[in-house]
Amino acid sequence: MSGWIGFNTAVSGLLASQKNLYTTNHNISNVNTKGYSRQQNTQESNNPHNIAGLGFLGTGTNITEVNRVRDSYLDFKYWGENAPVGEWNIKEEALTEISHVFNEPSDSSIRKNLDEFFTSLESLSTNPGDDANRALVREKMISLTKYINSTAENLKSTQNEINFEVGTNIKKINSYSDRISGLNKEIYLIELNGSSANDLRDSRDLLVDELSEIANINASETNGRFKVSIGGVALVDGEVSNKLKYPAPTIGNPLNSEEKLYQLEWENGNKLELKSGTLKGLIDVRDGDGVNQEYRGVPFYMKRLNDFAKTFAKNMNDIHKEGFNRNEDDEINMFEPSSGTNIDASNIKVSEAILNNLDNIAASSSPDVADKENNDIIKKLIAERDNNEFFTAKPDNDNEQLPQGTPDDFMKSVLSTLAVDGQQSIRMGENGKVIVEGIDKRRQSESGVSLDEEMSNMVKFQHSYNAAARMITTIDTIYDVTINRLGLVGR
Predict the structure, then answer these.
(1) What letters, b where the CB count within 10 A reaches 16 and e where it falls short, cover 28-58?
(2) What are phi and psi of 404, to 5 degrees?
(3) How far apart are CA 181 and CA 228, in angstroms?
(4) 43 has which bridge partners?
(5) In the chain, what's the furthest Cα-to-Cα distance?
(6) Residues 6, 152: one domain?
């Protein structure tokens, strides 16, 4: 009986070494697989055999389970810190795009066009009756208004692009919801009989990693039931997946007649509450108007551009209407809306009166046609260039004031705000990235595959396998001698 125990003991060692080699081989094969967690066998000794008069005799070893080497606490930390990184990275990208729209400083910008407009007025002031100087003023007015129109259109296009990204991220979340719930079902079926679905769990955790960048999620597993929630509402609960509404109904003012603002709503109509993540960053940049401490996104800079166009046109028009043209007419506007009744950045244009006739540029403060050298109105227009009260504090509500100062000061204030917001996004993104990278390094040190370690294990298990095989060979020799050769002498 004890001989067979010895043989079984040696076989168990051989099989255990073989399984350990299989697991090591699997780890080495997946050293470059994203999201893979190294696996480790749990090896336990078999129950000993009680031999009367001798005591307990060991019966070998057995592989009881194959475990993932994974720290759930580090996963929880990673998912929690990944969302802010996604939020600030997307804000940095969006603000960089807005800065490209303003294109400051450059030879083609609002401030440059504004400077050239006032310079043309200075040329006209030296000879107010010269048609060439008048034509130059008109051309610079056209250039300035068209550039403002173009900037407004580009801001609107940027907002449209961000809105498209919002929709794309909503679809991504819905896709992750389906895929995670599907993996939950597969994992449940495989582990129902006690098996381990380690590779499927790695795939699921990788999806959660990617999802955690889009939205602030909370993931947990209780009694084998895996749940992912956003803002306290379950996105995935076991095999059940919930969805966000897409496309969502238009709420508020649409970007244009053909575009819809994608809202963050569940399919049942409840609002999705986000605290961070790429989707939160996109919404902030798309909708943030800076009012009541809200984020300063595209609407904020669009409003500032509208304020500039409206105030600039009004102040220029008020002075110009005081003057007289060559036909002794007054009350002539320099700028007017191309559509509607109110001027903003998208519709400001040179008045039709000046576009159609250079004589309608009012340079004189006198109706006397003979006074051709009168340039009082031009000088007053030029003086507005350095007028520190050109933009005064005009609160649109109790919580907001417009920048003050000259036209150039106004634009510099807007650009300065944009620069500060951009630097904040860069700084917050970099700080968050350092934290996430630190957590990920700890995860990799825990769960990542080390080729050096695996090669060492391979050698160790190979020696163990060879030793078990040698033991079997030895026991086989003993059996052969005992059974086949014993008693041959004397035959």
Answers:
(1) eebeeeebbbbbbbeeeeeeebeeeeeeeee
(2) -110, 165
(3) 10
(4) 63
(5) 154
(6) no
End-to-end CA distance of the chain: 29
In a domain, 281, yes or no: yes
Asked whether residue 376 is assigned to any structural domain, the reply reads no
Pairing of strands 61-68, 39-45: antiparallel
Mean pLDDT for all residues in the chain: 89
Cα–Cα distance for residue pair 174/386, rounded to 1 Å: 55
198, 267: one domain: yes
Is residue 455 predicted with pLDDT exceeding 90? yes
pLDDT reported for residue 393: 56
Tell me what the mean pLDDT of segment 123-143 comes to.
93
Q: What are the structure tokens assigned to 314, written together? A: 């009004």
Provide φ and ψ at 255, rounded to 5°.
-65, -40
- Shared-domain flag, residues 105 and 27: no
Contacts for 192-196: CB closer than 8 Å, 24+ residues apart: 196/65, 196/66, 196/67, 196/68
| Chain CA centroid to CA 180, Å | 21
Please indicate, yes or no, if residue 374 is contained in any of the structural domains.
no
Residue 15: Cβ within 10 Å count: 16
Least confident of 29-33, 367-371, 483-487: 367-371
Give the other-Cβ count within 10 Å of 327's Cβ: 11
Q: Tell me whether residue 389 is in a domain.
A: no
Does the pTM of the predicted model rise above 0.85?
A: yes
Domain limits at 434? Answer: 75-300+394-440
Are 61 and 80 in the same domain?
no
Q: 322 to each of 114, 367, 417, 421, how far by Cα in Å?
A: 22, 10, 35, 41
d(CA 209, CA 70): 14
Is the domain of 196 the same as that of 81? Answer: yes
* Alpha carbon 211 to its chain's center: 11
Residues 134 and 278 in one domain: yes
Same domain, 83 and 13: no
Q: How many domains does the chain have?
A: 2
Nearest 5°: phi and psi at 361?
-75, 115
* The pLDDT of residue 238 is above 80: yes
Please list, residue by residue across 366-376, b when 16 or more beta carbons sit within 10 angstroms of its beta carbon and e when fewer do: eeeeeeeebbb
Shared-domain flag, residues 35 and 117? no
